[in-house]
Each structure stands twice: as structure tokens, then as C-alpha cells.
Amino acid sequence: MNSSELSNYKELLQDLQSLLTKAKYQAYKAVDNLRVQTYWQVGERIVREELQHKERADYGKFLIKNLARDLGFSKANLHNMILFCKKYPIVQAVPRQLSWTHMVSLIYIHDEAEREFYEQQTIENVWSSRDLEKQMRIGLYQKAVKSGGIVVKRRLPLKLIEPNTVFKDAYHFDFLHLKKNYSEDDLKSALLHKLEKFPQELGPDFFVGRREVPLLVGGNYDKIDLELFHAGLLCYILVEIKTEPFQHKHVSQMYSYLNWYKEHKQHKGQRPPIGLIMCKTKDEETIHYALGDLKKEIFVAEYKTKLPSKEQLQELLQ
Fold it and tell me: Which of 44, 156, 196, 227 has the smallest C-beta neighbourhood within 10 Å, fewest atoms?
């Protein structure tokens, strides 16, 4: 190998090493972002369970002790997840540059302005979690306040978009390839197996939460077909899927679900939840009288399991 070839090889090697290092970093970052989101969901689920049994003062201790044992977490880590959920009620607002070890330090800062200061400094200075802890120990925030040189970029209030700009009149589920005479369960299962394409059809900024979410109302359990979250609306979207034409009873069912979410799951900073009823067909006059003043809280859409034929499209165009 001559000197020119050796030089080219070294340049190639450096490029490839750089690519691999960058890929490893991005992979670690993606895993940690997933961990942050998952731990928030764990904390939120435990908090919700505690609220359902708030009349029992010892229930929280029972949960932590047994969940730590059965899930393989330490009790301290579970407490951190719960506190994380309470300090950051909207997980989508957590800066993606911050890892779980960063969050464990930040959630114990009670003053919101101080916490935002350290968030900002961590991101701007690319601090590790150890760097963050060091700056907190030496009281960087208090020193900055005392010197008058502190500038905390307060988060601007988010400008919420309007729900009627988000939901469509009809959704196309042709990607499901359903057989004839499918049942409601068939449709729900097919949608949930296609979770990647389902949000794409709904539109941008939809996050899929959970399916068949249980609600305890009046001593009876009921289930919501699908729970979503919308980043632009900053609220939960509750989806009910019906394989029948729209009926008045669908509205009363959805309205009770929305009221439950307002009391038990809506956090500070979120707008009230919104309902989306997906039906095989809908009649506009029936919807008008069934919804009444609920037109901004509940939306009704048709779904189509196959694309229209060429003849149908030509007929529509004419």
C-alpha cells in the first residue's frame, strides 16, 4: 500500500468511526428517551391507582412495597417515577436532551423557576448528570440570583390549536384489509395491530396511549376503546369505534368517559379531554341534535375500510 492509499484508508476509517460513534450515541439517546417516557407512564399509573383508593391511607405504602418486589425496582426508584409524573404532568414537555438521571436530580427541586434554570443550563452546557449535581451542590442558581445575573428563559405559554382543525369527517382504514362481515372486535384488533399506520391516518401529533382503558364508575367497570394524546391540543383523545351507524347513545357514553377523565386524569396545563366517535356511517342531522352544545368536546367521523372504486371516484368528480 503506497502513501496515498494509506492516507485515503485513514480518512475512510475516521469517517466510519465517526458514523458508528454517532449511531451509538443516537441509539443510547433513543433508549433513554424511551425510558423517561416509560417511567413517567409507570408513575402516572400508580398515582391513578392511589387516587382510586384514596380513602385508604396505607394503600400507597402497600402498592410501593409489592410493586417494587414484583417488578424488580427499588422502592426509591418507584418513588422517583411517581414524583416525576407529579412534577412534570405533561410528559411531552420534558426536554428530550435530558436523561433519566438528569430527571432524578431535577424532580427534587421544589421551586419551578430554579428547576427551569437548571434544565436550561444543563441543555446549553451539555452537562452530564454529575455536572448537574455538582452545580446544584455549589448553589449556582442562588449565586446567580444574588449577583443579579440570572436569566431564566421562561417557557412561553403554548398556543393551543382548535379541535375542529384536527379531526376529519372520514378516515380511511383500507390498510387493514378486513374480511367481509367483520365484527367490532375484528376492527379494533386490526387497528391496534397497525399502530404505526393508524396515527398516520389520524394526522400529525397523535400519540398512541393505551387500548381498552378500564374505568370504574358507580361500582361497574367500563372500557374505552383507545386512549390517545395530541401534542398540539395538549389533551387526551378518547376514541370509541362502532361498527354500526351513529346513534344518540354513543354521545352519552362518550360524555361520561370525558367527565371521568376530567376528574381523574386531566393535569394542570392540559385542556379538557376530547372524544372521537368513529362509526360505519353518520347522518349530519342526527349528529347535530345529539351533540348540541358538545360540538367542541365530541367529534364524530366515518371510517372507510376500502377505497372507492374508479367508477365511484368519477361519479364524485362529476
Answer: 156
